[in-house]
Known about the structure:
Largest sheet of chain A: 4 strands, antiparallel
Shape of chain A: elongated
CATH class of the largest domain in chain B: Mainly Alpha
Strand content of chain A: 5-15%
Oligomer: heterodimer
Number of strands of chain B: 21
Strand content of chain B: 15-25%
Number of strands of chain A: 6
Number of helices of chain A: 10
Radius of gyration of chain A: 25 Å
Helix content of chain B: 40-55%
Number of helices of chain B: 14
Structural class of chain B: alpha+beta
Amino acid sequence: MKLLRLAPENTHYPFMRLRRLSYPFSALLSILAVTIFLTWGMNFGIDFSGGTLMEMRAKDGPADLVELRALGEHLDIGDIEVQGFGTPSDVTLRFGVQPGGDSAQEAAVNRIRQTIGDRYDIRRIEVVGPRVSGELVQSGTLGVVLSIIAVLGYLWFRFEWQFAVGAIIATMHDLLLTVGFFSVTQLEFNTTSIAAILTIVGYSLNETVVVLDRIREMMKKYRKIPTDQLIDLSVNAVLPRTIMTATTVFLALLSLVVFGGHVIRSFSLAMIWGIVVATYSSVFICSPMLIYLGLRNETSETVKGEQTSTKPAV
Amino acid sequence: MLRFATWKIVSIIGMTLFAFLVIVPSLFTQAQREALSAHLPSWLPMHSIVLGLDLQGGSHVLLEVDQASVLRTQIDTLRDDVRRVLREDKIGIAGGIGVLPRGVQFRLANPAERARLMPRLEQLAGTTGINLLGGNRAAAFDIVNKDDGLIQLIVTEAAINDRIHRAVDQSIEVLRRRVDALGTTEPTLQRQGNNRIVVEVPGLQDTSKLKEILGTTAKLEFRLVAQPGADPSEVEQLEQVDGGTLPIEKRVMVQGEDLVDAQPGFDSRTQEPVVNFRFNVRGGQKFGEVTAANVGRPFAIVLDGKVISAPRILSPITGGSGQISGRFTVEQANNLSILLRAGALPAKLTIVEERTVGPGLGQDSINAGKRAAYVGAFLVAAYMLVTYGIFGVFANLALLVHIAFIFAGLILLGATLTLPGIAGIVLTIGMAVDSNVLIYERIREEAHAGRSIVSALDAGFNRAFATIVDSNVTMFVAAAILYFLGSGPVRGFAVSLALGILTTIITAVTMTRMMITLWYRSKRPTRLPI
Lengths: 314, 530
């Protein structure tokens, strides 16, 4: 059976030299991501902005978007964001926090239900009061920060400090670009998006660790090779695996985007973006960072003569 | 590489069989499971996987005890207590007892009496205070002495929190009785933090009724309608349910807590829906006394500060039972009797978050999740097969067992499967093969470096293992944090992700190794097939 090879083998790509291209490129992208985030902001879902989301399906024929939009003024609710999706009879209504405290939110839902409840099947209601949304923002932010600190600790314990710092910088890079992704696409940002971000953090570190692991191994094995060549050697060695895994995860996520339904679509899309960015950063950001951080294959002086061969066995 | 202990093989096969055994019941419907369990031995696992509210449909409601209303009740009680102390000790005050935002204040008519009053107030602060460990009590309020006989009693922060904490406990009891009366299956009520309650009710079509019975305090009071010329400080204007206001005496004659039963019924004369109630002995006596002393006066029935009706007392009612009429519909009478039977909430509860998914959408999500999982698994498996051939088959078998382990783990832990949880499983399908990929690529590398087959296989597994552990720990940390900080569906995602990471070590590493060993032993290949 002839096997398929997506990834070229025995490559000798000069990844470390490419850092002169990849660093400015990444810096530019990161700045762009932050700028867009600051100017466009994010499309915060009700989890974080507070408010109400109602998903409904017209019992007969297509949903009347104009009528639904007019409900806002009609029922004194303010702007209602009406959006069709899926079939023409499916629609979501979203509106902000109603003045008058927590009970006012429920009252608004009841008014809508009474007005159109006989013609629409209400399939989902989410009401998030202003205080709860504030807490969700807090715990979401805390989660991302905590996970980075925890993983930093683990890496520090397992590797040299340069590795930990390099991994964190790569992860930060992925985080910024993911935030930028949410800004550019205006995908709804909600608690599942936080889950997506944390998973991207996990995946990004996973990728980085695989590369770092190999670099560490190579450092023990080939003590005479200069650091940049050694890193190139390691990255090239794990390249087939990197491409292979990125592909399998991509395939799984692709089926989630296509078949997983609208409820988790923004999660799946963000994850796909995340694995692309994480794969890129593990190769182009984290590994070259080790050089900048002064990681040196310095034992070449002290153990001179111990190694008989410097020929890499790749 | 050629050695693979028999006990390992046996235990891996055993675990796999057990996992499938645990999953099988979830493939049947509830009714089928019950029918089957009658014929099967009882030691077989019969638990089905628990679906989250986003998949089976249902309501998640977060309620919060209203701090202001708790504080108000506390201040009212404090004022009554102080009034009683002053009366018992015959200490005069200038003016009335004033209410402060966090307490009460009054001015002694004779400042010299302060010395006599202080010990009494300290005693009151102690007896109404918070129970501490070892039988001691922390003071319920601080006593602040101002000049010329002004005394302020300020409720302490700890006392308010203690009261809120107890209000949550009591509310959960009351709400449980109310929700049970709805007759839905397996509602759960849980405290969250100091002042919140999570109510989860699966499979409810109409949530407006649920929210009504959760959000109503149901504090019932019987109070006399004020007569012209009554002391204005003892009277308040209360709204009537059917419009307008009535002057009602502030004094509560009989309270809803003395009710022992309430049932919906119909008035024998007008055929109008009513609620029939019965008092306990104390309430019955009190009700008899009040009605005997006030024949001819209207007696207001007040629910949560609104007058339901104010019928005139025609004759003393001594039987300990009575009737509330108020132009109810049948459903309203029904709801009110549920609320009265379950008792009043100790404080006002507000709905601060609601998430309801209809059963239709839930089913759609299950279908979408299933389809995504099947397609995802198929794509990954096909890709592994064309890339690694026979080794791909091994990886795919391991993947199948991996998925079985995740589901078995979810069932055994009693964890709920949510839509993000399904997404997590689909994601781990993509990730689980990563361990195989790491191993296989390493084997190839080692073989290219000139090692023999056995040695390359061995080195591949051994060297890749450290990497697999390191890289999975980082992912696991992220999942664990997500679990502790997330809620509901997101938690489901964290659980399936974490389970997936744990089982991948067993399936992708040990199982694959076993299969490759057995394959090598039987085939004795001369070159690696990857």
